[in-house]
Write a structure and sequence with these properties.
Elements lengths: L6 H10 L1 H8 L7 H21 L2 H15 L4 H10 L2 H35 L5 H12 L2 H15 L14 H6 L8 H6 L2 H18 L3 H25 L2
Length: 239
């Protein structure tokens, strides 16, 4: 059986040969520190870089216009909103928030795997092992970070919105709805990497649990399907 030789190779294998990666890392409990560091640090650096080159005056105006378009506001209310958009504050809240977002999402995902697999696949893996699993399963998202950085690099004039950093979202690729549209958030949230990560997670679950593809896919995809369907129903009937 082919195995990843080291943590760096395992990271590459999650992108190029995920079954090899997961067959390896289920026996290498101490290797998950590398995808954890690479994903959180690259996200942090991305946003630091973004705010160092973006035309912040333009960005601030864009964000205020989006808020004004989505909700009627008085001039005083708009000024109050504008006062919150300070460059230093946004740099650190976005960079730290983006990095911590990975941690929180992966912790919640690990709780889900820990509970569901005990019931459906008689899993004996502990929460900490599932938490490590989530970092391997989500590692291909680093390609998304690289693409976002390239968007900034090639923009040239510094006029890059936060939405532009998601070039593979359904909204960017297919729909191009404005930020004041009720479907904007959902269409931005669904992107090509959503499907890639589900596929990688399916392979990982099959490797770790020795279950068939259909069962692994259902466990991997169920949370996102539930979230996106609930979100769509909310927009249709409540928003």
């Amino acid at each position: 059986m082919k195995m990843s030789a080291n943590p760096i190779q395992a990271c590459l294998d999650t992108i190029l040969s995920p079954l090899v990666a997961f067959d390896t890392v289920k026996e290498k409990k101490g290797w998950s520190w590398l995808p954890f560091i690479l994903l959180t640090s690259s996200t942090f650096v991305l946003f630091i870089y973004y705010f160092s080159v973006v035309d912040f005056t333009w960005l601030k105006e864009q964000m205020i216009n989006q808020i004004a378009a989505s909700k009627p506001m008085t001039d005083d209310e708009l000024k109050a909103v504008a006062s919150f958009y300070q460059k230093d504050t946004m740099i650190w809240t976005t960079a730290i928030g983006g990095s911590l977002g990975f941690v929180v999402i992966n912790m919640l995902t690990a709780v889900y795997y820990h509970i569901v697999t005990k019931v459906s696949a008689a899993s004996e893996y502990k929460f900490t092992q599932w938490f490590a699993f989530t970092w391997w399963a989500s590692f291909p998202a680093i390609i998304s970070v690289v693409l976002s950085a390239l968007v900034i690099v090639f923009a040239g004039d510094g006029r890059v919105s936060m939405q532009d950093l998601q070039p593979t979202s359904f909204n960017s690729l297919l729909f191009s709805v404005e930020a004041n549209n009720a479907w904007f958030g959902l269409l931005e949230a669904i992107n090509l990497f959503s499907f890639w990560l589900i596929a990688v997670t399916t392979i990982g679950l099959r490797s770790w649990l020795n279950i068939n593809n259909q069962k692994a896919f259902f466990i991997a995809a169920a949370p996102q399907i539930l979230i996106f369907i609930s979100w769509a129903l909310y927009i249709l009937f409540i928003a």
